[in-house]
Amino acid sequence: MELDSIIDVLDKKIILVTGATGFLAKIFVEKILRVQPNVKKLYLLVRATDNMSALRRFQTEVILVPGDITCENLGVKDSCLKEDMWRDVEVVVITAASTNFFERYDVALALNTFGAKFVLDFAKKCINIKLLLHVSTAYVSGEKPGIILETTCYLGEMIDIEHEKSIIEDRLKELEYHNANEQVVKMAMKDFGRQRANHYGWPNTYVFTKALGEMVLHQFKGDIPLVIFRPTIITSTYKEPFPGWIEGIRTIDNFIVGYGKDRLRFVPSDPECVFDVLPADMVVNAMIAAIMANVDQTSSVTIYHVGSSVSNPLTYTMTQKYIYMYFTQHPWTNKNGKPVIVGKLRTLKSMASFQRYITLRFMLPLQVLKVVNVILCQAFAGTCKNIERKINFVLWLVKLYQPYLLSKSLYDDINTEKLRNMVRESKQDDVFFNFDPKIIDWEDYFLHTHIPGVVRYEFK
């Protein structure tokens, strides 16, 4: 198919996008409006309780429909608007989700699993529906090593989501019975989510509930053509709408921020492990191409891994080199107006070596310093607090991202490569819809686009 076919597919289309104020959805909407101004209508669902709250957010973000994917009929209260959507919508794109790795289990299950089910139920009422595209994550595969195929992530049998909902309700009732305050409930639900995820073989609540969302869509999709779209780690924009734009701290960016502020000097990682990343605008280009290739197909299910680990692998060694180069040349200035001088990031090849290093190098000396501090009447109180804060930051970061720091996974992208080949056939693919990782010079991208973007938008 030629490139014009992609634009033609969008011509006069009516598309519903959930999670419309999210980073990826904003780029998606902007791209469609820019390349195809004749798109007929975009229904943009944002979490809001009523028209006034939606209108208030409209002043800073693109919003059309107040609603909530955790509610039946997506929480759309305007009956006329609802009927219009059921009559008009042809393509539904699910980007709404909680991406917090340690989200409360009740919140994550409601958004990432039951939310997907509510969107599917809504799509089934759309009489002209031609495609449901669900943005998931490549990490629904869990912690499996080796080549991860573009296939379903079931573990032999379906997980009963109603049972999961029921045990959440039981746990909340138990906490209420013991008069637990909101903070205690929050931490209990976070711990419960981690336990349930680990029980079924996933490292955290986010990827577990996203995997459950995929399972639900597979099970109940009926005749609706379904695309499961699995990006890896999404980074700042490569080119569009302008280079280096990012919203929110993402996996790799936590290390960039921590290192640039001299809060992170060592990390457990295999230097040859691959950090699978792709710029956000390339992810969006792939989303639009996937719509073009699958709209109006019969009740099919197509899965796309969208990343770089096979086509243009980025190793941890490369990443560490680029971060060191950037902050050596452009040190961050702290609140006291002084440049922060960084050293090379030390890598420890296993969690065991990490635990030994942090214990011997930091935790034991800290305990000695605390004793001295008591003897000398709190003379080193500030130093102790500063060291302890840095240690806790590193421990938190490693706990959060351990499954990815030592990952031996590569994400097969045969379906995505077919999609790229389809787009390459057009002479204008580089202009509009290029999402080929092989064109990225990682050193140039990190030094001149991504890290400057993180510093500009996320350094506080």
Automatic annotation (TrEMBL):
Keyword entries, A-Z: Lipid biosynthesis, Lipid metabolism, NADP, Oxidoreductase
Pfam entry (one): Sterile
Gene3D superfamilies: NAD(P)-binding Rossmann-like Domain
CDD domains (alphabetical): FAR-N_SDR_e, FAR_C
GO molecular function list: alcohol-forming long-chain fatty acyl-CoA reductase activity; alcohol-forming very long-chain fatty acyl-CoA reductase activity
A GO biological process held by the record: long-chain fatty-acyl-CoA metabolic process
Uppermost EC category: oxidoreductase
Coiled-coil ranges (or none): none
Record-annotated Fatty acyl-CoA reductase C-terminal domain positions: 363-460
Domain Thioester reductase (TE): 17-287
Top-rank lineage group of the source organism: Eukaryota
Keyword Lipid metabolism appears in the UniProt entry: yes
InterPro entries for this protein: FAR, FAR_C, FAR_NAD-bd, NAD(P)-bd_dom_sf
Reactions this protein catalyses: a long-chain fatty acyl-CoA + 2 NADPH + 2 H(+) = a long-chain primary fatty alcohol + 2 NADP(+) + CoA
Entry keyword rRNA processing: no
Free-text function comment from the UniProt entry: Catalyzes the reduction of fatty acyl-CoA to fatty alcohols.
Stated family: Belongs to the fatty acyl-CoA reductase family.
Protein name: Fatty acyl-CoA reductase
